[in-house]
Design a protein that fits this description.
The complex is a heterodimer of chains A (268) and B (657). With 268 residues, chain A is of the alpha/beta class. Helices cover 38% and strands 24% of the residues of chain A. The N and C termini of chain A lie far apart (50 Å). Chain A has a six-stranded mixed sheet with strand order 6-7-8-3-9-10, sandwiched between helices. Chain A has two domains: 178 residues, Rossmann fold; 82 residues, Rossmann fold. The N terminus and C terminus of chain B are likely disordered. In chain B, helix 1 packs antiparallel against helix 2. The longest helix of chain B has 22 residues. The radius of gyration of chain B is 27 Å and the shape is globular. By secondary structure, chain B is of the alpha/beta class. Chain B folds into three domains: 261 residues, Rossmann fold (3-Layer(aba) Sandwich), CATH 3.40.50.12780; 152 residues, no CATH class; 167 residues, 2-Layer Sandwich (GMP Synthetase, Chain A, domain 3), CATH 3.30.300. Classes of the chains: A alpha/beta (268), B alpha/beta (657). At the A-B interface, helix 6 and helix 8 of A face loops of B.
Chain lengths: 268, 657
Amino acid sequence: MRAPSGTGPEVAVGDVLLSVENVSLSFGGVNAVSDVSFDIRKGEIRAIIGPNGAGKTSMLNIINGFYHPQQGRITFKGKTRAKMRPHDAAYGGIARTFQNVALFRGMTALDNIMTGRTLKMHTNFFWQLLRFGPAMAEEVEHRRRVEEIIDFLKIQEIRRIPVGRLPYGLQKRVELGRALAMEPDLLLLDEPMAGMNLEEKEDMSRFILDVNDHYGTTIALIEHDMGVVMDLSDRVVVLDHGIKIADGTPDAIKADQGVIDAYLGVAH
Amino acid sequence: MATGTGAPADTFPKLLIRNADLYGARPAMRHKDLGIWQTWTWAEVLELTRAYAVGLSRLGIRRGETVAIVGGNRPRIYWSMTAVQMLGAVPVPVYADAVADELAFVLTHAETRFAVVEDQEQVDKIMSVMERLPRLEQMVYDERRGLRDYDHSRLHPIDDIVTEGRKALADPKVGAWLDAGIAAGKGSDPSIILYTSGTTGASKGVVLTGEGLINASSDTVAFDKLTENDVVLAYLPPAWAGDHYLNYCQGLVAGFCMACPENADTAMADLREIGPSFYFAPPRTLELLLTRVMIRMEDAGYLKRKLFHYFIGIARKYGERILNGQPVPLSGRLLYGLGNILVYGPLKNVLGFSRVRVAYTAGEAIGPDLFAFYRSIGLNLKQLYAQTEAGIYITAQPDGEIYADTVGPACPNVVIRIAENGEVQFKSPGMFAGYFKDAERTAETMTPDGYVKTGDAGFFDEKTGHLKIIDRSKDVGKLNDGTLFPPKYIENKLKFYPNIREAVAYGDKRDFVAVMLNIDLTAVGSWAERNNVVYGSYQELAGHPLVYDMIEKHIAEVNRSLAQDKVMAGAQIKRFLILHKELDADDGELTRTQKVRRGFIADRYDPLVKALYDGSKEADIATEVTFEDGRKGTIAARVKIRDMQTEPVPAAMGKAA
C-alpha cells in the first residue's frame, strides 16, 4: 500500500481512547447491561464476547450512541458524555459494521464505500448537484481514498457490481470498506465473521489485522468464533447476562473459571 | 520490422534500448492501479529498468547467475526480468500459485541467491521453506503491504532498489558500466529458464537463449503482422512459456504495448477496457465466456433473445465464410452486416474483442462448435501448437486456413517430421538449449540428428496439409489389428457434445474400441424436462433407454467423423455404456485438473470393462464412493451396454506409419 502506511499515525498502544464507566441499560424490566466498566486503548484490538443475549450488541450500540444508558458515563477521546446521537459518534470518529449486513443493496460496491465519505464532504449540496468545480475536485480526492481502500481489501473485481448480487462474505468486506472510508479512530465490528466459511474467516481476520496495523485503527469487535477472538485480540472483555464477568488477555480469559462456567451454562 | 542502427539486437535488453530509440514516446506498459490505467512509455521503461538493474547489481547480482521471479502479471515482475537480463543474469520465473514445496524445488534446483517476489504471500511461502534454501541471500518485493514488521536485513522493496540505482546512475561511470554490460550480452547466452509444470516426475528447467527467442518472435511477429500499434493484455502467468513468448518476447520484438490487469480477478473487465488487438485464451476460458453470454441471454427480454438467436443463426451460416474470404451471397452479406451492428459488434465489445485482429487458442482440443461460434461472430480465432522446448510456436494456422481440428502447418523456419511411432518431432529457431543441469533428460528429449521429441502423437492431414495432434504418444495404443488407438482424441470428440460430460475410451491391445461415458446432468436434465422423461437420480437418468438412444446418435456421428480420417477409421467405437455414477476427483477417478485417470478407472470398473469386451448386454457393478463430508458408501447398479454400427472403413486400413 501507498501513502497512509509510512506516514500513517504511529499509534502508541496504551492511551485510553474510550472508557465505559458503570454503564447500565435496561429495556422495561430487562437489564441488558448492568454496571459495566471497561476501557479501550488506542491501537488495540479489543474483543467483547459472551453467550447469546449477554448484552454485547447493546454494549456496541451504547458506544455508538444508538442506545442511551440510564446510568454511567462514557468517555471518548477525553470527552465525557451521557448522551450522544449516532451521527455525533460518526463525526467523532466511530465507525461500525452490523451483525446483519446493512448496505444499500441496489448500489455498487464502489458507491456504497463512497457513502462512507459523506461526512468528509465539505462542498455543499448544490455544488455536488452540479458536480463541477470544487465539488468535482473534492470528489476526485474522495474517490482516490476509496480506491485505496478497494485496493487494500482486494475487491477491485466487484467495484461495479451491485452489492445485492455479491456473496455474503464479499458484502461483509464492502461493509468493512465503508466503515474504513470514514477513517475512524474507533472501528466497531459486530460479528464480522458470522456465517462465513473457514476461508472467508481467514481472509477477514487478515484484513482486520491489516487495518489495525496499517491504518493504526483501534478496533472493538464482537465475535462468536473463539478461535478467531483469541488469535486476533489484544484484550477481551466477557459479558454474561449484562454483567462483566472477566476482562484480560486472551490467555487469562481462556483460563478464567467464571468464563468457562458461563459458556458451559453452569446455574447462576 | 524496422531494425535499429548498428548490429541487430540479439538480447532483450538490447531490444529495449532499440525500442526506446524507435518508439520512445509510445506506450510500452499499462497497469491499472487504484482504478486508473497508468502508462509507461518505452523511454520510461528503459530509464526505470536501467536504474533497477544498477540497484540489483549493488545487491550483488552477478553475470551468469539465476534470479527467481515469483509473481503475477505486474509491470515490476516483467521489468525484473529485463533488469536481471541487463546484468547478464538469468531470470527464472515461478508461478505465483506454486505451493511452498514447488517453490523450494525450483529455487534449489536453479541455485538462486536472489528472489524477486510480488508480495507478502510469496515472502511467507519462501520463509516457510527457508531451511531448504541455504543459498538464498536476498529477497526483493513489489507490494509493501503487510511486510512492515518483517526483518528487512534480507528483504528490500523494489522501489528502494530503483531509487538507489537512480542515485548511482548520476555518476556517468555507472551508466557506462551498465551499457558495457548490456553490450557484452550475447544472443547465445541463456535468456530465461522456464520450469515446465512437469506432469511426469519433477519439473525441468527449460533454458532458452535470447537469440533463439528473438529469431522465433521475429518470424511470428511477421506471420501475424504485429506492429508497435498492437496491444495485448498479459493475464496468464508470466512463468508460463506462452505468456513469456507471446507478450514479453513478441512485445519487445514488435514494440507493442503490454497491459497488466488490476488483479487476477479483474482480467475480464480489464480486457474490455483495454481492447487488445492480439489475444490468447485457452479453450476453457473461451468456453467459460460463451457460457456466461448464453446465461445472460437466457435472462434477457423476449425481443433481445429472439434477435440474438436469429442473428447467431445467420452468423453460423455466413460468418466463417466471410472471415475466410469465401464467396457469400449478397443477401447473406447484408444480413451479416445488420447482425454485426445489432448483435456481433456489441457482443464482441462486451467480451473485449472489438479490436482483436489475431486471437489464438491452444493447449487442448477445442470443440468445433465453440471454435465456430467465435469465428462466426468475426473473431479471427486460430489455433497453434506449441511447446516450451520449442521456444513456443511449432505450428500456427495462417489467416484464411482455419480448421477446428488441426493446429496448422509448421511455422516459418520450423521443420516438423512424424517419427515411426507417430510422434511429432521438430527443429525450430527458438529451440531450447537444454534442460538446466540435466544433460541426461536433455539427451532423452533430443534425437541424434538434432530434432526435439514432443511426446505428442500426430499426423499431417491429407486434405489441408495441416498437423493434427491426437494424443500424448505414450498414451497412444494399438488395437489387435494394428490400428492406431489414441484414447484422448476419441474422448475429446465425444466430449464436444454437451450431453457427454466425461468419456473413457479403451482399445489398447483389444479387438475394438469401447467407451464408458458420463452424461452431463445439467444438459441431459434439461433435455429430460423438455421431453417429459421422469427420473429420480443421476443413476436413473443415466440408465434411461431414451438417454441411451440419444447418446447412441452422438456416437454414430463420432464414428462417421472418425471414418473420414484414414488413420482413425479403424478406431471407431463398437460398444458403449453409460456409467451409473459421475466420475469424481474425490474418488480418485479424475485428477484435480479434471483429467480422467484411465488406468485407475479400468481397475475400479473392471467388471464393466470385461463386459464391454465379452459381448454381454448388461453388467453388475458395485463401487465405493466418498461423499463430500468424507463418509464412504457403496453404489451398486446394473449397467446396460449397447453395440454400435460402425461406418465402412476406407480401403487402406490406417496402420500407423
